[in-house]
Amino acid sequence: MKRILGLLLIAGCAAPQWQKDGGTKEAMEADLYFCDQMATTQVQPRVQGPSGTPSGIGGERKAAFNAMAEREGERMQKDQNAVGECMRAKGYSQK
C-alpha cells in the first residue's frame, strides 16, 4: 500500500511535458486541457468510500480505505493514459 501511495505522489509531481514541432505553448495548453476533459468523461467516475461510519473504527474501516485508495489510483492511471493517447493523436510527443 505504501508503494502505491508513493508511486501516486511521484506520478502527480512528475506530469509529462508535451511538445509538437511548430506548436506554441498556448496551443499545447489548450490541447492538454481538452484531452484532460475528455479523459475524465471517458474514465470511471471518482471512487467514493463508505459513508455513515465514524472514522477510526478499526480494521474494517482501514481495509475499506485501502481498497478505495487502490481503486482511485487505478482510475488516475487510466486518466493519465487517456490524456497521453489524446495528446499523441494530436501530434504531440513527450519531452
Compact summary:
This protein has 95 residues and is mainly alpha-helical. The chain has helices spanning 2-13, 25-42, 59-89, and strands at 18-19, 93-94.
What does this structure look like?
The protein is mostly helical. It contains three helices and two strands, in the order αβααβ. Strands 1-2 form a two-stranded antiparallel sheet.
Shape: elongated
- Give the percentage of residues in beta strands: under 5%
**How can the largest sheet be summarized?**
2 strands, antiparallel
Ends: how far apart? 30 Å
Placed side by side, the strands forming the largest sheet appear as 1-2
User: Radius of gyration from the CA trace?
Assistant: 17 Å
Low-pLDDT runs of 5+ residues are none
Helix content, binned percent: 55-70%
Mean pLDDT: 75
Number of helices: 3
Number of strands: 2
- Structural class of the helix and strand makeup? mainly alpha
Order of helices and strands: HEHHE
Give a topology summary.
Blueprint: H1 2-13, E1 18-19, H2 25-42, H3 59-89, E2 93-94
Antiparallel strand pairs: 1-2
Helix pairs in contact: 2-3
